[in-house]
C-alpha cells in the first residue's frame, strides 16, 4: 500500500514539474564507456517512475510466488501432521485393545511428522513391552529420551515397565532418585509401594502407607491388608535376626494402639511361638485377653506350649463366669479340660459353646469327652451329628 501511494506522489510531482517546466525541458546526457544517451528531464523522470513501478511489480510477483510456495509447503506439512496424529490416536486405541503389533506400527509410521514424537515412542515402547520384545522396547525408550522435555514421562514409563517385569531392584534405585525430586507425585508413590512389596522392604512400606491413604491411592481394605503384611514382615525379619529377645524389644517399643490391635497381637504371638518363646507369647496373650476376650486370640491359647496349663484354665474359668454365653471362651476352656482329663467339665463347656453356635470341631471334642465317660450312645449321636455337618459343608 505504501509503495502505491509513493508511486502516485512521485507521478503527481512529475506531472506538476512537467507542466511547470514544459517550455524549459532541458536535457540529460548519460555517458558510459563509448555509449552516450541524451534525453529530456521529463523523459528521465518518466523513465525513473516506470523503473520504480517495474521493480515494485517484480517484488510483488516474487513475494506472491514465495507465499504460494510457503502455503503449499505448509499445506503438505499440516496434512502430514494431521495424518501422524490420526495414526497415533488409532495406535493408542490398538494399545488399549491389546493389539500390540498394530499399535507399534501405527504410532511409529509417521512419528517423524508428529508434533510430539515423544508420545509416539512411549506408546511404541509400551506395545513392545506387551509383545515381550525387550530390544524394541529399549530402542523406543532411547528414541524417547532423545526428545526434548518431558523426561519424567520417560523415566516413569521405564520404571513402570521394570515393575511389570519384576525388576524391583532396578526400579527401586531409580524411584529413590525420583522420590526426592517429585515427593508428591502419586505415580511415583504407587510404584514405590509395588517395589517395597516386591523387595520385602516392610519398614519402608509401613512408613509409606499413610501417604498412600492420604492421597487415596489405596482402598481401606488394601490399606489394612498391606499394614498387617508389613507388621508381619518386620516381625519375621526381627525374629530371624534377633530371636525372641528382639521380638520382645520390638513389642516393648510398639505404640499402645498397636498393642491393643488383635491382629498385631496374633502376629506377635505366632512369631514368638515359632521361635520357641511360648512362655513370653502366653504373657502377651494373657494380658490382651484379660483386657478384651477376643475370639481371634482365644484359640491361640491352644497353640502355646506351656509346662503348666493350670493358670490358663483359671483365667478362662474367670472369663466364663463373666461371659457365660461366649462360645469361644467355653470351647477353649473345654479343650484345656480335655488336656487335664477333666471329662465332665469338658462336656459341660462344649455343650455351653454349642448352645451358642454350631461347630464341627466342638462336636468332635464333645464326643471325645462323652467317650471318656463311657457314654458311648451319646458319643455316637454326637459323632453322627458332626458327620452330618461335614456332609452339608
TrEMBL record:
It is found in: Cell inner membrane. Keywords: Cell inner membrane, Cell membrane, Membrane, Porphyrin biosynthesis, Transmembrane, Transmembrane helix. The keyword Membrane applies. It is a multi-pass membrane protein. The keyword Nucleus does not apply. The chain crosses the membrane at residues 41-62. Pathway: Porphyrin-containing compound metabolism; protoheme biosynthesis. It holds the Pfam family HemY_N. Residues 26-132 form the HemY N-terminal domain. It comes from the Bacteria. Involved in a late step of protoheme IX synthesis. This is Heme biosynthesis protein HemY. It comes from Vibrio algivorus.
Amino acid at each position: 500500500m505504501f509503495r502505491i501511494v509513493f508511486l502516485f506522489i512521485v507521478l503527481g510531482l512529475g506531472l506538476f514539474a512537467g507542466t511547470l517546466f514544459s517550455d524549459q525541458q532541458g536535457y540529460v546526457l548519460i555517458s558510459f564507456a563509448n555509449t552516450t544517451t541524451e534525453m529530456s528531464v521529463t523523459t528521465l523522470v518518466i523513465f525513473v517512475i516506470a523503473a520504480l513501478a517495474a521493480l515494485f511489480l517484480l517484488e510483488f510477483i516474487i513475494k506472491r510466488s514465495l507465499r504460494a510456495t510457503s502455503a503449499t509447503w505448509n499445506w503438505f506439512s499440516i496434512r502430514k501432521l494431521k495424518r501422524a496424529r490420526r495414526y497415533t490416536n488409532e495406535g493408542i486405541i490398538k494399545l488399549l485393545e491389546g493389539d500390540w503389533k498394530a499399535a507399534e506400527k501405527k504410532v511409529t509410521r509417521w512419528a517423524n511428522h508428529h508434533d510430539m514424537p515423544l508420545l509416539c515412542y512411549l506408546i511404541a515402547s509400551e506395545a513392545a513391552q506387551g509383545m515381550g520384545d525387550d530390544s524394541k522396547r529399549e530402542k523406543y525408550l532411547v528414541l524417547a529420551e532423545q526428545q526434548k522435555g518431558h523426561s519424567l514421562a520417560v523415566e516413569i514409563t521405564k520404571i513402570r515397565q521394570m515393575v511389570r517385569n519384576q525388576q524391583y531392584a532396578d526400579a527401586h534405585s531409580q524411584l529413590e532418585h525420583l522420590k526426592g525430586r517429585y515427593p508428591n507425585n502419586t505415580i511415583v508413590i504407587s510404584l514405590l509401594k509395588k517395589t517395597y512389596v516386591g523387595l520385602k522392604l516392610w519398614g519402608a512400606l509401613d512408613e509409606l502407607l499413610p501417604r498412600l491413604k492420604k492421597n487415596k491411592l489405596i482402598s481401606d481394605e488394601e490399606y489394612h491388608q498391606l499394614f498387617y503384611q508389613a507388621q508381619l514382615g518386620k516381625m519375621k525379619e526381627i525374629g530371624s535376626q534377633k530371636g525372641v529377645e528382639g521380638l520382645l524389644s520390638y513389642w516393648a517399643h510398639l505404640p499402645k494402639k498397636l498393642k491393643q490391635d488383635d491382629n498385631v497381637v496374633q502376629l506377635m504371638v505366632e512369631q514368638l511361638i515359632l521361635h520357641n518363646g511360648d512362655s513370653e507369647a502366653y504373657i502377651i496373650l494373657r494380658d490382651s485377653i484379660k483386657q478384651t476376650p477376643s475370639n481371634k486370640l482365644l484359640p491361640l491359647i491352644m497353640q502355646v506350649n506351656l509346662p503348666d496349663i493350670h493358670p490358663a484354665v483359671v483365667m478362662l474359668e474367670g472369663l466364663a463366669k463373666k461371659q457365660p454365653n461366649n462360645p469361644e471362651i467355653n470351647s477353649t476352656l473345654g479343650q484345656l479340660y480335655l488336656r487335664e482329663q477333666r471329662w465332665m467339665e469338658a462336656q459341660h463347656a462344649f455343650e455351653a459353646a454349642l448352645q451358642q453356635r454350631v461347630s464341627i470341631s466342638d462336636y468332635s471334642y464333645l464326643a471325645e469327652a462323652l467317650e471318656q465317660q463311657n457314654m458311648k450312645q451319646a458319643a455316637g449321636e454326637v459323632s453322627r451329628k458332626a458327620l452330618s455337618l461335614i456332609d452339608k459343608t
